[in-house]
Amino acid sequence: MNTDADDRWSLVVPLKPLARAKSRLTPSAGARLRPRLALAFAEDTVGAALACARVRDVTVVTDDPAAGAALAAVGARIEPDVPGAGLNAALAHGARVVRRERPAARVAALGADLPALRPDELARVLDTARQFPRAFLADAAEIGTTFLSAAPGVELEPAFGGPSRLRHLSTGAVEIRSAGVDSVRRDVDTGEDLAAARALGLGPRTAARWLPVAG
């Protein structure tokens, strides 16, 4: 039973150091713009998440000081990547940090590369996730994962990276198949992904950095 008076979600968002983030965007964006786009993606993701009525707070796990400062300005809590052992270790650490303060928290991991994210679509995903101990949303390619949730008292057990949809299924997480949540599934790794996100509608920071270049 959740004894927290505030039953909204705490989201955990992982972010690599910007110098290494989104390397597959280099052919489309160039080496100088790529890290700035990676930060813009994260800023738009966090901004949209915090605008969602179902979200209480967002913790960003990162060791990049510039990214941390920028995302703190958007409203995120910044947590150093103490494990330093990759994406899933960072997410598990972030979830533990949240639950040290709020043991009954509903926790969800969200990718940092959702520049078209819409608060109302995220709310639909979160409302569905409440029905299950653990639930996840596959990416647009239905290979990876953009979202993973854990109910109060349930471990997150993140298994992101590569073909993570099948890994999350194998751990017993329920796949969310809701319609009308394309922006929560549209992560961006390549120029083609960014074009698809643009078609959905980019967030303001990504649009400001990308549209003048893309034309």
Automatic annotation (TrEMBL):
<keyword id="KW-0548">Nucleotidyltransferase</keyword>
<protein>
    <recommendedName>
        <fullName>Phosphoenolpyruvate guanylyltransferase</fullName>
        <ecNumber>2.7.7.105</ecNumber>
    </recommendedName>
</protein>
<feature type="binding site">
    <location>
        <position position="145"/>
    </location>
    <ligand>
        <name>phosphoenolpyruvate</name>
    </ligand>
</feature>
<dbReference type="InterPro" id="IPR002835">
    <property type="entry name" value="CofC"/>
</dbReference>
<keyword id="KW-0808">Transferase</keyword>
<feature type="binding site">
    <location>
        <position position="161"/>
    </location>
    <ligand>
        <name>phosphoenolpyruvate</name>
    </ligand>
</feature>
<comment type="function">
    <text>Guanylyltransferase that catalyzes the activation of phosphoenolpyruvate (PEP) as enolpyruvoyl-2-diphospho-5'-guanosine, via the condensation of PEP with GTP. It is involved in the biosynthesis of coenzyme F420, a hydride carrier cofactor.</text>
</comment>
<dbReference type="Pfam" id="PF01983">
    <property type="entry name" value="CofC"/>
</dbReference>
<comment type="pathway">
    <text>Cofactor biosynthesis; coenzyme F420 biosynthesis.</text>
</comment>
<dbReference type="GO" id="GO:0016779">
    <property type="term" value="F:nucleotidyltransferase activity"/>
</dbReference>
<keyword id="KW-0342">GTP-binding</keyword>
<keyword id="KW-0547">Nucleotide-binding</keyword>
<comment type="similarity">
    <text>Belongs to the CofC family.</text>
</comment>
<feature type="binding site">
    <location>
        <position position="164"/>
    </location>
    <ligand>
        <name>phosphoenolpyruvate</name>
    </ligand>
</feature>
<dbReference type="InterPro" id="IPR029044">
    <property type="entry name" value="Nucleotide-diphossugar_trans"/>
</dbReference>
